Amino acid sequence: MCKILNAFIIVLWFAGSAFGQGGLGSISGTVVDPSGAVIPSASVVLLEIQTQTTRSITTNEVGLFVLPSDVPGRYTVTVSAPGF
């Protein structure tokens, strides 16, 4: 199930990166389970691969998250929630 969530987040990342390659960007999305139900209070961790810098955020009550001011680079996004 976590693989499905990770795949969803990765798709969102690549869709956002298509709009420009300069300056800062952001990663945002909605965390949902396989049935499409939103997952509030899920932990979203962003790891910048080159520097090993992490940032984390918790989804809001409707499963949304935003990680602004990201420098261009390669990232890994991990999503976890109780019961998943």
Write the layout of secondary structure elements.
Layout: H1 2-17, E1 25-30, E2 43-48, E3 53-58, E4 64-70, E5 75-80
Antiparallel strand pairs: 1-4, 2-3, 2-5
Q: Would you mind describing this structure in some detail?
A:
The protein has 84 residues and is α+β, with helices and mostly antiparallel strands. It has a single domain (2-80), classed as Immunoglobulin-like, CATH 2.60.40. Helices cover 19% and strands 37% of the residues. The protein has one helix and five strands, in the order H-E-E-E-E-E. The strands form two sheets. Strands 3-2-5 form a three-stranded antiparallel β-sheet. A hairpin with a 4-residue loop joins strand 2 (43-48) and strand 3 (53-58). It starts with a helix and ends with a strand.
What descriptors fit this protein?
about 80 residues, alpha+beta, Immunoglobulin-like, 3-stranded antiparallel β-sheet, about 20% helix
What number of structural domains do the residues give?
A: 1
CATH fold-level label: Immunoglobulin-like
- Biggest β-sheet: strands ordered side by side in the sheet: 3-2-5
Strand content range: 35-45%
Number of strands: 5
